[in-house]
């Protein structure tokens, strides 16, 4: 698309609505998030990147972060994207799905990136699929296990920003990378969406690969493992399947919650797990929750997951979010000052993927308009995101959620009463108000019955400190936060 034309369309919202490709992207994500389960959306759609729109050819390019996701998207979601694009643009639109390992910025400059283009006319009929053992839909094809590590070389310890939220997970990962198959086996890494679990396990694999280039390493998403089991089943190729998986030095298996309810997969994984540990090979597993909390997973697997080292990754704290934004912006060649990073990080709190998305929006805006990265620019570029966030969380909402959680009256948030069962929830609410809103300490004090800002500061420090070593308190704060965001 002609950059001049983009500029003039950007200045003319009416024109923009008809061709705005970023508008299409936001709308498509919105629709798919409603149509799919949160887990499907998180796994398949969220990691996609919008790359280019060529107006002259009426074609859109969408990037997927790895080969597996690329293939899956093309097979499973291409038709739906096609429909959404045609609806949005009011004319037939060609979709290209490409590998975009870096998760590159959305840049509407034509052909600004070198891409492994895989033209996917979405009209191409999907291949026939079979439903096997109620496990997963797979295409008919010959059973071949790809003998590659599937590691993403960009996901290393060097590119991983550390803070309180992930320092334990990082330290454990470094230990395991240096001594695979030794004491922490298996290592079970759990945490919410987009917090860096995949990044860390790739970092372990990349480290080992560098130390021992001949090591047999395999990264696999749990859903791909399920597909492998189904194909081995179809083609009676379990011997080959076992030979491959049982002979690895390091198996990295991501998002194992996808095994839920898939009994044959779990059985095969159990054998693989036993064989690998027997050989002193390292197994590393990630999940969205800790082993005992997993639903639909066999007890004998759960007890094995729990038998090594289980370590959590928490959502990044404010300073860490700032550091991540600044590092990633600098890597893109567009430095972000600390005050802009603080502004963004204060508004976007849930996970690193969300921060990366926001950064991409800001960088795209800056590139189109030739502007510097300022708070004003960030505010404009993130207008939609910020309005959602602001709608969600106010000090009053926090006071109500905390009072409900601890079964006290909301009025106790403002009262002068000081028994511990009231004072502590009040301090937690003050802490959360500081973390989750843009209010200053004096403003928060005012909203808590006219308290002094030093009282708020004391509460914020106390709860922050306790939270860092009190797992129960940490959990309670998470639960309240989830209620607020629901
Ligand atoms: N501490 C960090 N430093 C730098 N980048 C990070 C950090 N944590 C996460 N990221 C980046 O954020 C994005 C999401 O992280 P990742 O895919 O590892 O999350 P995840 O925990 O595996 O999420 P999911 O459960 O959705 O698979 C990736 O691009 C990753 O590189």
TrEMBL record:
GO biological process, one term: regulation of DNA replication
Region (Domain III, AAA+ region): 150-366
Segments of this protein annotated with the region Domain I, interacts with DnaA modulators: 1-120
Cross-referenced SUPFAM superfamilies: P-loop containing nucleoside triphosphate hydrolases, TrpR-like
Pfam families: Bac_DnaA (PF00308), Bac_DnaA_C (PF08299), DnaA_N (PF11638)
Binding residues annotated for ATP, in chain numbering: 194, 196-198
Segments forming domain Chromosomal replication initiator DnaA C-terminal: 394-463
Record's subcellular location: Cytoplasm
Domain AAA+ ATPase intervals: 183-317
Keywords from the named record: ATP-binding, Cytoplasm, DNA replication, DNA-binding, Lipid-binding, Nucleotide-binding
Annotated segments matching region Domain IV, binds dsDNA: 367-486
Comment, domains: Domain I is involved in oligomerization and binding regulators, domain II is flexibile and of varying length in different bacteria, domain III forms the AAA+ region, while domain IV binds dsDNA.
Assembly, per entry: Oligomerizes as a right-handed, spiral filament on DNA at oriC.
Protein name: Chromosomal replication initiator protein DnaA
Source organism per UniProt: Polynucleobacter sphagniphilus
């Amino acid at each position: 698309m002609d950059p001049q034309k983009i500029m003039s369309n950007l200045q003319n919202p009416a024109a923009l609505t008809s061709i705005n490709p970023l508008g299409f992207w936001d709308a498509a994500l919105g629709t798919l998030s409603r149509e799919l389960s949160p887990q499907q959306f998180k796994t398949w759609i969220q990691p996609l990147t919008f790359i280019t729109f060529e107006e002259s050819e009426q074609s859109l390019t969408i990037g997927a972060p790895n080969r597996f996701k690329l293939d899956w998207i093309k097979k499973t979601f291409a038709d739906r994207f096609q429909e959404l694009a045609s609806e949005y643009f009011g004319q037939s639109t060609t979709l290209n799905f490409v590998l975009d390992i870096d998760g590159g910025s959305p840049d509407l400059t034509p052909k600004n990136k070198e891409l492994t283009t895989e033209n996917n006319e979405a009209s191409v009929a999907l291949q026939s699929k079979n439903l096997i053992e109620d496990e997963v839909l797979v295409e008919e094809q010959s059973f071949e296990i790809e003998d590659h590590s599937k590691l993403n070389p960009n996901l290393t310890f060097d590119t991983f920003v550390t803070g309180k939220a992930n320092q334990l997970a990082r330290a454990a990962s470094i230990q395991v990378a240096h001594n695979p198959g030794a004491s922490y086996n298996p290592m079970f890494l759990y945490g919410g969406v987009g917090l860096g679990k995949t990044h860390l396990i790739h970092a372990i694999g990349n480290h080992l690969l560098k130390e021992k280039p001949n090591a047999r390493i395999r990264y696999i998403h749990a859903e791909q493992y399920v597909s492998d089991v189904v194909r081995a089943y179809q083609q009676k190729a379990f011997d080959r399947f076992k030979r491959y998986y049982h002979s690895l030095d390091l198996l990295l298996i991501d998002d194992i919650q996808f095994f839920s309810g898939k009994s044959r997969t779990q059985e095969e994984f159990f054998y693989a797990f036993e064989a690998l540990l027997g050989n002193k090979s390292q197994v590393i597993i990630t999940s969205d929750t800790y082993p005992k909390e997993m639903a639909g997973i066999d007890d004998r697997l759960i007890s094995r997951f729990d038998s090594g080292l289980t370590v959590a990754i928490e959502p990044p704290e404010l300073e860490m979010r700032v550091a991540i934004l600044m590092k990633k912006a600098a890597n893109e060649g567009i430095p972000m000052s600390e005050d802009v990073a603080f502004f963004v990080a204060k508004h976007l709190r849930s996970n690193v993927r969300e921060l990366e998305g926001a950064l991409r929006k800001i960088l795209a805006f800056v590139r189109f308009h030739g502007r510097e990265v300022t708070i004003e620019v960030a505010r404009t570029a993130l207008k939609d995101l910020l309005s959602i966030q602001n709608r969600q969380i106010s000090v009053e909402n926090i006071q109500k959620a905390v009072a409900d959680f601890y079964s006290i009256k909301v009025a106790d948030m403002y009262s002068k009463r000081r028994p511990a069962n009231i004072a502590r929830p009040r301090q937690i609410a003050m802490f959360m108000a500081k973390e989750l809103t843009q209010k200053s300490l004096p403003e928060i004090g005012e909203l808590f019955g006219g308290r002094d800002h030093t009282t708020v500061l004391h509460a914020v420090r106390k709860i922050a400190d306790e939270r860092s070593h009190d797992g129960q308190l940490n959990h309670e704060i998470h639960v309240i936060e989830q209620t607020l965001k629901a």
